[in-house]
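INTERNAL AUDIT FORM
Audit reference: QA-55
Scope: verify that the stored structure record matches its stored sequence.
Auditor: D.O.
Record contents follow.
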Amino acid sequence: MKLRTYMTIIAVFSITILFAQNDCSAFYPFEEGATAEITTYDKRGDIAAKVTYMVSEISQNGGNTTAEMNMDMRDTDGTLITQSTYDVLCNNEGIEIDFKSMFSPQMATQFNDIETEITGTNIVLPNDLTVGQTLPDADMQARINMSGINMNMSVKMQDRKVVGQESVSTPAGTFDCYVISYSNDIKMGINQRGSAKQWIAKGVGLVKQEDYNRRGKVTSSSLLTAFSN
């Protein structure tokens, strides 16, 4: 497994809680065409990639609203790294992000005859966040068959908790945010364990993210650099 592919999976996993708000969602814009650009940085603060999220379609099913999300990740030269599509479900209590968002099949296009079987639990973000609140864990397991070679991959978001409120300034504006911390565990050939913090604003979604290694040092970060709805 190439290091670039592995790090891409970590980056997508780290910023996957991105986008969704209408009357049923307090934090994310649930409007067709709504777009956010997230710029990711390496541990030195240099730009590593730019990720664009767009709500491509909104549909209704009973009491739930579903937003189809398109994700496009490009390197500093504008070369496409990966694309994916996943669903975000919304009801009057908040949103659930499809666990499949933790795995992008397009990342494996370097392999031939790839087959995947994906299971897991969705990422839940309630409308009524309060400091000290504990949020549900989320996980994804994938069984990958690459031309007869079997490999397992797992992603876990654990110990999710609302730890504070802070104001954050970005190129897209200044936002009042809730801060959510969690631990993560990614296994795909090698194990990657660490933790993260996310700054999430009402009506916007993810504004900032920092990822840390086991020693608490920043390994990567992400920042909202453009937003429109």
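Auditor finding: record pair retrieved intact. The CA atoms of residues 78 and 106 lie 17 Å apart.
Action required: none
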